[in-house]
Every structure is written in structure tokens, then in C-alpha cells.
Amino acid sequence: MFNDNTALNLDNENLKAAEKEDSAQESKEQEAVLPFSLKTKDNEKSDHVNEQSIDEFENLKMDSGEDRYFSYRPEYANLWQIEERLVPSILADISKNFLTYFLGAVLCALSLYKVYQVQETRDLTARYNEVMMNNENLHKEWLSLLAQRQTLSEQGAIREAATQKLKMVAPKTEAEQVIKIN
């Protein structure tokens, strides 16, 4: 049976082997990037360059990018033809999935109707609140007018207003004249 130390040792060995493979891959990539030899400490005095490496470097094919960019692809050369084929393609897709698109359009319409309905409800609620506030103000004014009528209809208030505001005096009983109407 394996214990924890054995498992750790195996993992460390696998890790070291992977690191060696990565370093070997990196060195191969560096050689591919630099196809000619560089100066090293051993051959600093000589400017010898490997002739075969230079030939390989000169014969490298440059990528024009034609495969990567749509503008260079022959099937996209005439965009007008693609636009002409786009409309029938869209119409075919709509006819194929008509129920889905129809239900989506109905859902959008119902959503817009719900927004309209909520806005109308808010407007009506605001108008209702204004009318109720106006009604309450009119009710308060009516109550104050009733109270004022009550106070003004009393005999004492009438007599006091006549003497103070109109400077009226009550006639003496001897000066009173009674007129008979038949």
C-alpha cells in the first residue's frame, strides 16, 4: 500500500518530468524562432553563421493572412450577393419558427400593454387624489360657512351688527307706528 509520502514523491517526480519536457519544448521553439546560430561565449571571436540555417530562413513562407480575414476570402468577395441572400434566409427562418416568433411578438405586445396600463393607473390615481383633496377643501369651506350662518342668524348678533355697523337705534314705543294692511 502507498502512504502519503510515497504519493508526494511520485507527484514530485511527475512534476520534475513535466518541467523537463516543458524546457525541452521551449528550447525547440527558440530554435524555430531563431533559425540561424547566435554568438556564444565559445565562439565570440568568429562571426560564423550556419549557411543551411540562412537558406531555411530565406525560404520561410510568409503568411498573407488571407485565410484569417473575411475580406480576403473569395466567398465574401461580393458582399452584395450575400445581402441578397440574407433576406430569403431570414424569411425562411421566420416561416420555419413562426410559432416561436409569433409568441415572442405577442409577449412583447402584452408587456408594452402592461406598461401602458400601469402608467394609466398612476395617472388616474393622481387625478383621483387631486379631486379628493379638492373635495375635502370644499367640505371644510362648507362647514365654515354653516358655522358663520349660524352665528349671523342669531338675534343678538343681528342687533349688535345693526347698532355698530349701521348706527341704527331702536325706536321708542311711543314713536312706533302700526300700519294695517287689509
Question: How would you name the oligomeric state of the polypeptide chains in this document?
Answer: single chain
Portion of residues within helices: 55-70%
Main beta sheet strand tally, sense and closure: none
Helix run count: 5
Secondary structure class reads mainly alpha
How many beta-strand segments? 0
**Element string (H = helix, E = strand):** HHHHH
Strand residues, percent: under 5%
Shape: elongated
C-alpha termini separation: 142 Å
Poorly predicted spans: 33-39, 43-47
What is the mean predicted local confidence, pLDDT? 76
What are its keywords?
membrane; Cell_div_FtsL; 5 helices; transmembrane helix; mainly alpha; cell division
Please tell me about this protein's structure.
66% of the residues lie in helices and 0% in strands. It is mainly alpha-helical and 182 residues long. The longest helix is centred in the C-terminal third of the chain and has 55 residues. The protein is elongated. About 7% of the residues have low confidence.
Topology of this protein?
Blueprint: H1 4-33, H2 51-58, H3 79-96, H4 98-152, H5 155-164
Short description:
With 182 residues, the protein is an all-alpha fold. It has 5 helices and no strands.
